[in-house]
Specification:
Blueprint (H helix, E strand, L loop, with lengths): L1 E6 L10 E6 L3 E2 L5 E9 L3 E3 L11 E2 L2 E11 L5 E10 L7 E4 L2 E7 L13 E5 L2 E5 L10
Parallel strand pairs: 3-12
Antiparallel strand pairs: 1-2, 2-4, 4-8, 5-10, 6-9, 7-8, 9-12, 10-11
Length: 144
C-alpha cells in the first residue's frame, strides 16, 4: 500500500479532521483495478459533510469509477473515522498519467439539536491529489 498524504494538527487548527489517503498500487496496466482509500478522522464534537466525498464529486482524469463504498466508526473516545474506498480502472491508452484531483471536505462543530447541513462550516480540509503511472506494451513513439 502506498500512503499518499496526511494532514494533521500542524497543518490545520487542532479541531480540523486529519486525512490519510492510500493507493494499493502506483502504476497500472489497462483494465487493472486500483483501490483509492481515504480515511478522515474527526475528534469528539467534529464531523464532516459526507456528501463532499460522494462518488459524484471525485475528480478523475483518465480513470473510471468501478465501485465505491463508505463506512463510519466511532471509538470509546468519541473519535469518528470515516472511510471512503473507491475502486478505479482505465481502458484508455492515450493518457500517460492517470490523476485523482484534490477534493475539499467541509467540517463542522456538532451542536445538540442541529443538523450539519443547517450549520456554517468551521473550515475545510483537502484530500490531496494523486497520480498513477500507466504502463503499456505499446511503443511510446509509433513512428520509430
Amino acid at each position: 500500500m502506498c500512503v499518499l498524504g496526511a494532514r494533521g494538527a500542524a497543518a490545520q487548527p487542532s479541531s480540523a479532521p486529519s486525512i490519510r489517503t492510500s493507493l494499493d498500487r502506483t502504476a497500472v496496466w489497462i483494465a487493472d483495478r486500483i483501490t483509492f482509500r481515504v480515511d478522515i478522522v474527526c475528534a469528539k464534537g467534529i464531523d464532516i459533510l459526507e456528501d463532499d466525498m460522494s462518488k459524484d464529486k471525485l475528480k478523475l482524469e483518465g480513470l473510471e469509477l468501478a465501485g465505491s463504498e463508505s463506512s463510519r466508526t466511532t471509538d470509546a473516545n468519541e473519535t469518528t473515522t470515516h472511510t471512503f474506498t473507491f475502486v478505479l480502472t482505465t481502458y484508455r491508452v492515450d493518457a500517460p498519467v492517470l490523476k485523482i484531483g484534490a477534493l475539499p471536505v467541509r467540517y463542522y462543530v456538532k451542536r445538540a439539536g442541529q443538523r450539519l447541513q443547517d450549520e456554517a462550516p468551521a473550515g475545510d480540509v483537502q484530500v490531496p491529489a494523486a497520480e498513477i503511472a500507466f504502463r503499456s506494451a505499446l511503443q511510446d513513439n509509433p513512428d520509430d
